[in-house]
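Example 371.
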Amino acid sequence: MNGYPLSDFLKARPEVERLKAYSAPLEGRRNLLRLDFNENTIGPSPKVVEAIRSFPADHIAIYPEYDGLREALIANLSSSPAGLTSALTPAHVGVFNGVDAAIHAVLQAYGASGDTLLTTSPTFGYYAPCAGMQGMVIEAVPHELPGFVFPLEEIRTALLRTPRILMLCNPNNPTGTRLAADQVLELARQAQETLVVVDELYEAFTGDSVLPSVDFEAFPNLLVLRSLAKTAGLAGLRIGFALGHPDLVDRVGRVTGPYDVNILAVTAAMEALKDQDYTNSYVREVLRARNWIVSEMTHMRIKHHVDGGNYLLVWPRRSVEAVEAELRAAGILVRSMSGKPQINGSLRISIGTTEQMQRFWKAYVAIDSEL
Ligand SMILES: Cc1ncc(COP(=O)(O)O)c(C=O)c1O
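Predicted structure in complex with pyridoxal-5'-phosphate:
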């Protein structure tokens, strides 16, 4: 049968034609020790699980309601030991289908074709495709070696060219690079014509957040991203937040659908935000496990790098592919950093509980057999 000449019609915008679908090795991970996506490795608070189990069936048929969620986040942040210097209102908080969706929305709302996204390299892999689909130009400044130090002077110089957006991952995934909160604020003050987005997904593990000290009236160009995925264990439900000046949050919200965040995610988030003790105790356990694994690696002179976040980098003596595959065969997932600038040849290991890290370490030592 002669078909229509659809091929040209099927082509998307040129920016989309240049993209590759973002792919992460997400399948077949159940029942394994998952040290590959920096997720919470033990699951959410029992109160979250109970709220989902007892969720009324008829409410599934209703579009979600978001009343009280923004207030619950603000109450949670205000009651943290660091607190908040200036009061936040619900208008300061945007709710998204994970921080990924927030990143997408920010770039959709603010990134026009030809605008520059300034960031560091290597960094979280989803910034580039979101910028790419807008036709933005990406300027990625390498971290300073040794130690993957934040390239402060180079970023300052690049800001003089007024990029549209500066994306800071703090601490940076995957190098753990940390930037003190007052340095973030200083960059935002310097670059008042640039939108400064701080992705604080892993701040709970290191405490460099700008939220306790920022007044968004004084920093209307600053947007802070937070998620319940990595600490509270809600990665599978997808919920994230963007905090900033109400005018900024309003604009980022304009490019999302009215019901993009589902009602189970909202229900779970409300419970997780109320049960901060559970999250705190998980974070404390991860930090204990981190100390343990780092001291083992140091003791055995294994090349590694650790800084902020619930992850570290390790350079196996054998090939990364072989070690990754053999760990998988032993039931343990880690993430190869092959092909990434500066860290090619390393594995990123997420940090779970001490018991989980002991299991990982036993397998790793046996597999990287020259030890
Ligand atoms: C730095 C960073 N930002 C954002 C995300 C996405 O977070 P979420 O699960 O809330 O979409 C991740 C997930 O790995 C991440 O590492």
